[in-house]
Amino acid sequence: MARKLAVFNMKGGVAKSTTVYNLAVGLVKFKKQRVLIVDIDPQGNASAALGIPIWKIDFQLKDVLQHKTPLEQVLVSTDSGVDVLPSNLFLAEEEIPISGRPGRELLLRKAIAPILDKYDFVLIDCPPNIGVFSINALMASDAVLIPVDMSYLGLLGVQGIERALTLVREQLEHPIEIAGVLATRYDRRNNLSKEVFDALTNHFGDKMFKSVIPESVRIREAPSHGQSIFDYDKDSVGALAYSQLVDEVYKCQ
Ligand SMILES: Nc1ncnc2c1ncn2[C@@H]1O[C@H](COP(=O)(O)OP(=O)(O)OP(=O)(O)O)[C@@H](O)[C@H]1O
Ligand SMILES: [Mg+2]
């Protein structure tokens, strides 16, 4: 049975999509895992990183959530070896209709249930908010991977994340765990990164991943070349950090 991880933080730009993409490619490349990315963010960034022409797709995740298209028709296998259920901005137009449906929180869980035995990992890329799509991602997951960028606002956002997880556990009765908190965009040249990292470690203790993702131009450049950090610059500090994360996620399966 697949391990299902939502990559979630309501704050934008903390490297959710970058982490989903590189972690997925790394799990395939280094651990020979079968990996599915579920892109439940209307920005479609994880889909685009995988080379999906998001403005030309005939079918997408929303069609599965609305029972309009069979899942097999929406699922795309990519050259990286990662499969994806893609999305684009049309997903956003469905937010209100989907929010009004009975059982709205469980649409994704039910949609992917039939294919879980085909995968070792399902990584769900969440949008930067706590709307119906993020709730669906959390309800479909065993655990949540929380990327936090090394900024003051990043630290401040932690309270909101914990509140959202409490809501899912208590109101929706889903015992979601924290797989780990990932420090991202760590810049050794400024003190703030260290201060935020120390505060996070104090708070989360052994829930912190040991891997720390550095602020890196190579990580930022890689998607524009259609490549993961491992293919774009395999000896870079960013590739090393993401390969350590791959090891950690693989081990705590
Ligand atoms: N370690 C890093 N070093 C430098 N740039 C990074 C790093 N990680 C991500 N970025 C860049 O920061 C931007 C935001 O990253 P990303 O899209 O992964 O964040 P996100 O949390 O998914 O954002 P959103 O909340 O909008 O979905 C992108 O331009 C990405 O290339
Ligand atoms: Mg994103």
Automatic annotation (TrEMBL):
Q: Could you tell me which residue ranges the AAA domain spans?
A: 3-178
InterPro entries attached here? AAA_dom (IPR025669), DNA_Partitioning_ATPase (IPR050678), P-loop_NTPase (IPR027417)
* Cleavable signal peptide: none
A Pfam match: AAA_31
Matching entries from CDD domains are given as:
ParAB_family
User: Would you say which domain of life the source belongs to?
Assistant: Bacteria
- Name listed for the protein in its UniProt record: ParA family protein
Say which species the protein is native to.
Answer: Nostoc parmelioides FACHB-3921
